[in-house]
């Protein structure tokens, strides 16, 4: 296998399989996206999702609400989508405007339609080892990528740098469910290098361009760089790719590493949900 882990190739192959599954469904899966405010970053993410969805045969409905939208209006809209049988899944694009409660919004989504897996019910299921949960697409996408290239984390030391609800924490749960020995680091961690240098698998999600260099890495480690940082020199990960390349055994590049896996995994979760709903009636 190539030292550079090709997320685009894996995502394209998964997309092909999903196309086949969608073709066998009775109804077209529908993703309802809710965008609050006019964040240009959100627009990029929504566009990427729509492009993949179209290719696979998933319909995406996007509703845009003003930045000063009332919380009640958002909750009432989510409730409408919860009740619509044609809506397979719901996503509320982050970040939310300050007057809108994250907790109220994510927990108002029917857990079976919660495509981001942010609701407390889905988070709880992930951590209690129940299998029928939906987890955030980025960490699930990372696990899909590791599976695609036959990496086995069982019994290995996994170190995650970053403890967000979107990446670090759910990734820890997923790795633990696969019998990895997991350490989570964050901005208050002391002697970070000492810990990261123990990692067989090093996952970095901090949002700091090229922060992790060879001095943080054990010889032969597998590095998963989740970071997406827009800099003057272009898109950069959280890992200094050039510095670590020689030392690691494998690494995900930025772009074309974790990014495409996030989008395709979201699609996979929609298709799986649609399929399950047709089977269960
Ligand atoms: P957050 O800002 O929510 O979390 C960052 C985490 O990194 C926090 O836990 C923070 O610690 C920790 N951290 C920050 N600085 C340091 C440091 N110097 N040493 C150790 N830990 C540190 O970010 P996200 O998890 O949402 O995103 C992280 C990165 O991943 C971003 O670049 C983002 O763009 C990217 N991303 C990429 C995705 C993809 O599809 N590829 C999807 C989602 C995110 P503390 O908790 O103590 O503040």
A few lines on this structure:
This protein is an alpha/beta fold. Helices cover 42% and strands 16% of the residues. Helix 2 packs across helix 10, helix 6 crosses helix 7 and helix 6 packs across helix 10 (258-280).
Blueprint (SSEs and pairs):
Layout: H1 7-24, E1 30-36, H2 40-56, E2 59-65, H3 71-83, E3 89-93, H4 102-108, H5 120-128, H6 137-148, E4 157-161, H7 168-177, E5 181-185, H8 192-196, E6 201-204, E7 222-225, E8 229-231, E9 234-236, H9 241-245, E10 250-251, H10 258-280
Parallel strand pairs: 1-2, 1-3, 4-5, 4-6, 6-7, 7-10
Antiparallel strand pairs: 8-9
This protein binds NADPH dihydro-nicotinamide-adenine-dinucleotide phosphate (NDP).
Domain Tetrahydrofolate dehydrogenase/cyclohydrolase NAD(P)-binding: 136-276
EC number: 1.5.1.5, 3.5.4.9
Domain Tetrahydrofolate dehydrogenase/cyclohydrolase catalytic: 5-116
């Amino acid at each position: 296998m190539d030292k550079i882990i090709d997320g685009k190739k894996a995502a394209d192959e998964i997309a092909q399989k999903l196309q086949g599954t969608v073709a066998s469904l009775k109804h077209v899966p529908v993703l309802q996206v809710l965008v609050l405010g006019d964040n240009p970053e959100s627009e990029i993410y929504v566009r990427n999702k729509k492009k993949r969805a179209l290719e696979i045969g998933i319909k995406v409905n996007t509703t845009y609400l003003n930045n000063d939208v009332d919380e009640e209006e958002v909750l009432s809209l989510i409730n409408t989508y919860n009740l619509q049988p044609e809506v397979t899944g719901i996503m509320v694009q982050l970040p939310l405007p300050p007057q809108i409660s994250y907790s109220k919004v994510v927990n108002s989504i029917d857990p079976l339609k919660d495509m981001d897996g942010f609701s407390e019910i889905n988070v709880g299921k992930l951590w209690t080892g129940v299998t029928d949960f939906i987890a955030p697409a980025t960490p699930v996408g990372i696990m899909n990528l590791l599976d695609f290239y036959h990496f086995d984390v069982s019994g290995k030391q996994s170190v995650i740098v970053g403890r967000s609800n979107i990446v670090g924490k759910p990734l820890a749960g997923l790795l633990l469910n696969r019998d990895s020995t997991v350490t989570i680091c964050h901005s208050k961690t002391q002697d970070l290098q000492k810990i990261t240098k123990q990692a067989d698998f090093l996952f970095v999600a901090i949002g700091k361009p090229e922060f992790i260099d060879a001095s943080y890495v054990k010889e032969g480690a597998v590095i998963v760089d989740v970071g997406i940082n827009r800099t003057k020199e272009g898109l950069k990960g959280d890992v200094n790719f050039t510095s670590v390349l020689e030392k690691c055994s494998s690494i995900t590049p930025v772009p074309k590493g974790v990014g495409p896996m996030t989008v395709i995994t979201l699609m996979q979760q929609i298709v799986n949900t649609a399929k399950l709903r047709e089977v269960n009636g």
